[in-house]
């Protein structure tokens, strides 16, 4: 049986990480107009896009999503964090990887800026 997003949210340890996950479900649902779905065991995704690598490998992935990890919440920006440099400079405390934004506490970042980042990334992958 597949786990529902709500069931998964209830299993997230730590009040901050659980609160942040609930906030991101609301924010990403509103921005994308999509319902959250589980991608694997720990990624909550919104929408879908099809990718093809130069090698010919292809598949489908959530257009935007996140995973509440122990050390930080990982927000997946599959168009790459480099596309959001200006907005990231105004976000507040965070770290990044190539396609990941790591936030330890959403209460310490500007949610309006995060919403703009999510919207831009989602639009890039779906339009």
Describe this structure in words.
The protein has 127 residues and is of the alpha+beta class. The chain has a single domain, classed as Alpha-Beta Complex (Aspartate Aminotransferase, domain 1), CATH 3.90.1150. Helix content is 35%, strand content 24%. The chain has helices at residues 5-11, 15-32, 85-88, 111-126; strands spanning 36-39, 43-46, 49-52, 58-61, 64-68, 73-76, 95-96, 100-103. It has a six-stranded antiparallel sheet. Helix 2 packs across helix 4 (111-126). It starts with a helix and ends with a helix. 24% of the residues are buried.
Biggest sheet features? 6 strands, antiparallel
Shape: globular
Whole-angstrom Rg: 14 Å
- Put simply, the count of helices is 4
Regions with little confidence, pLDDT below 50 for 5+ residues = none
Supply database-style keywords:
globular; Aspartate Aminotransferase, domain 1; 127 residues; 4 helices; single chain; alpha+beta; 8 strands
Summarize the structure.
With 127 residues, the chain is α+β, with helices and mostly antiparallel strands. It has a single domain (5-126), classed as Aspartate Aminotransferase, domain 1 (Alpha-Beta Complex).
Structural topology:
Elements: H1 5-11, H2 15-32, E1 36-39, E2 43-46, E3 49-52, E4 58-61, E5 64-68, E6 73-76, H3 85-88, E7 95-96, E8 100-103, H4 111-126
Antiparallel strand pairs: 1-2, 2-5, 3-4, 5-6, 6-8, 7-8
């Amino acid at each position: 049986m597949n786990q529902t997003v709500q069931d998964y949210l209830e299993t997230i340890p730590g009040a901050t990480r659980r609160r942040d996950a609930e906030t991101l479900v609301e924010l990403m649902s509103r921005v994308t107009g999509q319902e959250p779905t589980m991608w694997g065991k720990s990624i909550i995704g919104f929408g879908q896009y099809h990718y093809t690598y130069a090698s010919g490998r292809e598949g489908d992935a959530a257009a935007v999503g996140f995973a509440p990890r122990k050390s930080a919440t990982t927000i997946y920006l599959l168009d790459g964090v480099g596309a959001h440099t200006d907005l990231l400079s105004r976000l507040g405390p965070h770290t990044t990887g190539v396609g990941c934004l790591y936030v330890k506490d959403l209460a310490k970042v500007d949610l309006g800026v995060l919403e703009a980042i999510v919207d831009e990334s989602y639009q890039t992958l779906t339009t």
